[in-house]
Every structure is written in C-alpha cells, then in structure tokens.
C-alpha cells in the first residue's frame, strides 16, 4: 500500500495489543455459548426477539441543513444532510434528483481492529445499501438535476450499523425538509441456525458470518421499510439460508420496523415544535422592538410639529 | 540580474545573497541564500484559472511547496498555509479579480531558518513579478537557548541546542506582526523580547530588499 | 430580514455588530463559548473523550497497538495524532482524502503536543529495541463551528489523561508477547496544554480581538481557521501561531495572552473535574 502522505503514519508493523491477550482466539462453540445461554438470554440480558432501546435526536450538527444522531446502546451514528447542489461533472439532464451517500467508520469505532482511513469495501457496500434504501423514499422528482448529500459517520460500531444509519438518514432528511413519501425505518436480524437475533450486537453479527462447515442457516438480513405505505425500500442479505428462514425473518423485521415508526414520529414532532417555538419567540422579540421604535418615531414626529 | 553580498555581521544575521529572474519562463523568480540555507521561488500570475476556483472579489492565491526530496509530506501543507496567509495579506488581490496567482517554492538547502528564507524569497519573487502589494514583508527567525539567550537567524548547531525557535514576519510599513509561529516552550517575557529583537532586525531585511530592487528598478523613498 | 441583509452586505452586517461592541451571536468580544466534556463514552476505543465548545464538537478516540521501535530510537514509542474533518461537519468539505486545512490542523495539533512535552515518548517504550506502544489518537470533528484546534487539544488531552496501558510481558528468548488487561497503569501526562484561538479584525482603525471565534467569524476575518492560536502548558507558552487576519499590534497580543492564560486555568478545571467524576464512577 502506498504511504499516505496526507496524514501522520505510525510504524508499518504495528498490531493491536488485543492480539496477545488471553482468549483472543475462541472457537465457534465458545463464541456461541457466550452470546446465548441455555435459557435463551443474550449476553447483554436481552431476549432473542428483543431489540435495543433506540435513542434518536435531530439538530446535531449546526453547520448542516439537517442532521441527526442515533444510538442503539453502544452503536452510535451521526448523520448530516446538506442543501441540494448541482450534480458535479454531469452533462446530461437527469429527470430525477440524486442522492449521494457516504458511510464512514471512525478509526476507533470497531472493537477488534483499527479502521483504515481510506474507505474500504465494507464502507463502500454500506454507502451503496444506504443509497438504495433512501432512493425510493425521497421524492426525487422534486429536485431534478440536483443532488442531496447524505453523510453518515459511525462513531462506534456494535452491530446493526446499517439499520442505525438508515434510521439516522431518514431523520436527518426530514430535518432538512427534503420531501419524502413516508417515514423510513430499518432493522437488522442475525440468523444462526434456528435462532434469530433481533438487532444483533457486533459479536452476534460476527457469529452469524462465521459458520462451521455444516450447511446450517446463517447470515444477516437488514430490511428498511416505509411502514405506512407497506413498502420495502431495501433488503440486504449476507450469508446463506433457506427460503422459509428468510420469510420468517421478514415477518420479524416487518414488525420491528413498524414498532420504530411512532418513535421516529415523536422525535420529528418534537423537532417541529421546537422550531415553531423559537420562531414564535423571535417574532415576539421583533415585534417588541418594532413597537419601541414606533413609539420613538411618534415622539420625534410630535417634536417636529412643535418646532 | 542582481547579486549582492551584504556584510551583516554586526547585526548577527547571516549574509544574504539573492538573484532575481533566476528562472527565464516564470513571471517573477528569485533565489535567495541566507547563510547556507537556500530557497528558490517562482511566481506566475495573474493567470487564467478554472471557473470553480475563481473569486469575483480577489485573486485566488495558490502556493505550492516542493521539498528537496520531492516527496510530499503533511508538514509541507503547513508551510504552504503559512506562506499563503502571508502573501494574502500583502498582495492587493482585489486588483486582480477572477484570476489566479501561483507561487511555487523549491527547497534547495535547509541549514536552519528555512521557512524564514522561503518567505523572504517569496517577497523578492513577488516584487520581481511586479504584482501590486500593500506592503513588503520580511521574516526573521530566532532561537532561544537553555540559558534564555536569543540568537537571531540561527545556524543548525544553534538550533540543535535551542529550547525554542520562533519565526516572525513583519510588514514594511508599521513593522506589525503579519505572521508568526513558534516551536518549543518558553516564557512570555522571552517571547516578547524575541519579538522585539526580530522586529528591529527586520529592518536589515527590508534594506536588503531595497538594495536588490534598486539595481533594476527605480525605488521610491 | 436580517438573513437577507447578511447575504447582500456581508461586511457591513458584520461591522454593524462590531461597532455596537457585540458579536453576531450575542457574545461580547472576549466572551468564550460554554464547554461540555465527556470522557470514555466510546467503549470500542481504549480511551475516548467528546468535547463541545459551543457548537464545535470533536470526538477523540485512542487505539493502542504494539510495534517494534525505530532502530535509530530504540527507547521511544509512538504517538500518532490525526485530525479528521469528514464532510459531515461542514459544507466546506467534500468526501475524499484530507483537505489542506485538515492537514494544517493535524500539524498544528501534533506540534502543540510535541512542543508542550506533555507526553514523554520514552514512557511508551516496553522493551529496549524490541517493543513499544503505539498510540493512535484520532480526533474526528463532528461539527466545525470554529476554534477547532482548541477543541482538538482539549479532547486529546482528556483522552490521554484517562488512558491506561495494560501490562505487557515479553519473553526475550521465545520472543513471545502476552498482555494482561486486568493490570493497567496510567499513562504519565505532564501538565495540560490548552490552546486558545482568536480572530483578529480591523474595524475603523482599531484592532479587535475576538476570543473563541465561530466559523462565520473566522471567515469574516479572512483566515482558514483562526488567526491567532496561543497555547499554555503549566503557565508556560508552548506555541503561538499567527496567520493572516489583520496585523497584530503589541497591545492586542498582550490582551490575547491574558485571555489565553485565564482560559488555560478554566479548561484545566473543567478537565480535572470531568476526569475526577469519571474516576469516582468507575471506582464505585
């Protein structure tokens, strides 16, 4: 790899110290037992079908048109959306507006290794998945020949980062007042054999992607939905599984996505209310000032008449 | 065109030598040596640039720094930034709207006080290119050693023994600070003393400019 | 109405505020924005801190790695600091490799840390010529609203102060390394460098010093970033950089140094209190 001369570089042969700790290499069975105990309780105390509590807020980045922050316990995602701008380097007229997405991991976001600064395959794949999910959601015919930039920064990755990114992007787009058909929500499920981990952590995702040689169902499915319209905007699957398994997972995800809608609506309504309140306050202040000025004006007019 | 050897021993600045119009193809160029430190600067402009980079209010300044080895490094961007900010205040950019001015600096030899040499050389090259300027500018480097003594225009041996090094750039009209950057840690008093010493020493550099320029052009004052 | 005025007469808009001795965001000239600090919120990193100075938000995370030291300096570890300005923090940046301003900020931060000598790189050595710690410190700007260097230094120092190094044993014969994460020692940090940014503006023959400028003010004062950055560590200056803006007079400089010194103490207090609270919490 060529040396990155735009950054300070460390020594070439450095390795994470975790490589030398005890229990760095664990077998599949050990990992499985760690993730799920005999009673069907996950490592963090959740039941299999239980999602993590979601914290979301808008107005995170002052410099952006719209922005949001989504937290699923340890997974932390920031998103910002900027004003539409003309599509650079394009000669033809495009009827539909475009959405440009970039997903970036912080170098310190992953527990296992340090992320490289240059975008890797995973980041590119996530960017494409995010764009595909957002394209059917946004009323793209409203801004032909323009593009909207959506930037996602993952501060900490503890699984389900694509669904967190989609949720964040939906909120940020709404905050930026980009016209959309519906509230977009997304959820992930990790499949290990018969078990389905809803809203998996990074360890569970890892478990679902490494599989022993036996051909059992394993993989990760992320689904994003426009729940009111009953439409699926994106479906991303990694791993191999049979059809019944996919159908079952879809049912779970459909319900999870629908569950998130009121949460998102609450956040957005709070945002709108806040906007109204500030506007009202500013208007009142402006009125007060104007009245003061008018009073002064009258005084002066009277003085003029006397002289 | 002009080459000059000024005896500045009394003032403890290393001898400066300069040749203007060193390069034949650029609008203005200068090579300057301060002691053994040598920098070469070429200035081109005002010239046509891409629409996207144009500014309707002033000329767009581009500074390119090339190190001796030719390999780019992150520190070079910092040097470019320093020189660009200095030129930006000095050049009357509003006289050249929608154009670009390119300043290219080539490192020749670095024997201490290199960035100061680059800045002085840039000023000479700008004068040589005939660009309108608010004022000229002069950079003076100094080093503070362990005892707190201030050495103007330090040589490599003095730099190695220094606790801190500072470089200040002054304008020719009021001798106010245009740009300044420091390395190492020091007390406030040392800082202000060094600043004053450099401020008075900057007159030597301005005199040198006048000497050089008067060889090929009429100088007011 | 004010927004339109700002667009049509940008300079006059700014001057109108300054002539009434107030800044567009309602602050006095020397008033600084509130600081919010939180440590160790990112568990994936070995140490981390989030700081908010007004709107400017910077997250710093440190990842620990092991490497063989350089042959010419066998007793010295590595401290790699980088500032990331992703496109989401401001509309000025586009995706791609670091811009010039990101590189300049990175250099400034690295210089300040090196000049203040707050970390002795020899502390990072484990075995002579064989093994040393590498501290990858990445500062990510989430929201860039001016005075970026201040925030970067603050979050970096807060993370370094909470960083603990696990115990490493090295077998010289088998060259085997083992790390025990249950035994951790604190990294030795000498002092706490605090950077303070200023914007310098010339208004009707008088020079104005604006402390802790927002990105709008930085832009109006004609700089890429702040015009003057001064840095104090243990009451000693460890860096003073001035670029662009109006020329700096002696009075202005004295004024700035005074503010910077006061701020250094205030920031020190903030960091200390935050770390103390954090330590109380983990010891519970």
Automatic annotation (TrEMBL), chain A:
Q: Which UniProt keywords apply?
A: Coiled coil, Cytoplasm, Exosome, Nucleus, RNA-binding, rRNA processing
Record's InterPro entries?
Answer: ExoRNase_PH_dom1 (IPR001247), ExoRNase_PH_dom2_sf (IPR036345), PNPase/RNase_PH_dom_sf (IPR027408), Ribosomal_Su5_D2-typ_SF (IPR020568), RNase_PH (IPR050080)
Q: What is its main location?
A: cytoplasm
Where is this gene product found? Cytoplasm; Nucleus
What's a single GO BP term from this record? rRNA catabolic process
Gene Ontology CC: one annotated term: nuclear exosome (RNase complex)
**Where's the Exoribonuclease phosphorolytic domain?**
50-179
Q: Which residues form a coiled coil?
A: 275-303
Q: Which GO terms describe its molecular function?
A: RNA binding
Instruction: Give the superkingdom in one word.
Output: Eukaryota
Q: Tell me, what's a Pfam family for it?
A: RNase_PH
Q: Which family does it belong to?
A: Belongs to the RNase PH family.
State the name under which the record lists this protein.
Exoribonuclease phosphorolytic domain-containing protein
TrEMBL record, chain B:
Q: Which family does it belong to?
A: Belongs to the RNase PH family.
Give the residue spans that cross the bilayer.
none
Where the record annotates domain Exoribonuclease phosphorolytic, the positions are 13-131
SUPFAM superfamilies, sorted: Ribonuclease PH domain 2-like (SSF55666), Ribosomal protein S5 domain 2-like (SSF54211)
Q: What is this protein called?
A: Exoribonuclease phosphorolytic domain-containing protein
| CDD domains referenced in this protein's UniProt entry, alphabetically | RNase_PH_RRP46 (cd11372)
The Gene Ontology biological process annotation of the record reads: nuclear mRNA surveillance; poly(A)-dependent snoRNA 3'-end processing; rRNA catabolic process; rRNA processing; U4 snRNA 3'-end processing
Q: Which GO terms describe its molecular function?
A: RNA binding
From TrEMBL, chain C:
Stored InterPro entries: ExoRNase_PH_dom1, ExoRNase_PH_dom2_sf, Exosome_comp_Rrp42_subfam, PNPase/RNase_PH_dom_sf, Ribosomal_Su5_D2-typ_SF, Rrp43
Q: Does the keyword Ribonucleoprotein apply?
A: no
The record ties this protein, via Gene3D superfamilies, to: GHMP Kinase, N-terminal domain
Q: Which GO terms describe its biological process?
A: exonucleolytic trimming to generate mature 3'-end of 5.8S rRNA from tricistronic rRNA transcript (SSU-rRNA, 5.8S rRNA, LSU-rRNA); nuclear mRNA surveillance; nuclear polyadenylation-dependent rRNA catabolic process; rRNA catabolic process; TRAMP-dependent tRNA surveillance pathway; U1 snRNA 3'-end processing; U4 snRNA 3'-end processing; U5 snRNA 3'-end processing
Q: Which domain of life is it from?
A: Eukaryota
Q: Do you know which CDD domains this protein is assigned to?
A: RNase_PH_RRP43
Instruction: Name its species.
Output: Mythimna separata (Oriental armyworm)
> Where found in the cell?
Cytoplasm; Nucleus, Nucleolus
**Designated name of the protein:** Ribosomal RNA-processing protein 43
Q: Which residues form the Exoribonuclease phosphorolytic domain?
A: 31-166
Q: Does the keyword RNA-binding apply?
A: yes
- Please give the GO cellular component terms listed in this UniProt entry: cytoplasmic exosome (RNase complex); nuclear exosome (RNase complex); nucleolus
Q: Write out the GO MF terms.
A: mRNA 3'-UTR AU-rich region binding
Instruction: Tell me which Pfam families the record gives.
Output: RNase_PH
Matches recorded under SUPFAM superfamilies: Ribonuclease PH domain 2-like (SSF55666), Ribosomal protein S5 domain 2-like (SSF54211)
UniProt entry keywords in alphabetical sequence: Cytoplasm, Exosome, Nucleus, RNA-binding, rRNA processing
Leader peptide range in chain numbering: none
Similarity comment: family membership? Belongs to the RNase PH family.
Tell me the PANTHER family matching this sequence: EXOSOME COMPLEX COMPONENT RRP43, EXOSOME COMPLEX EXONUCLEASE RIBOSOMAL RNA PROCESSING PROTEIN
Q: What is its main location?
A: cytoplasm
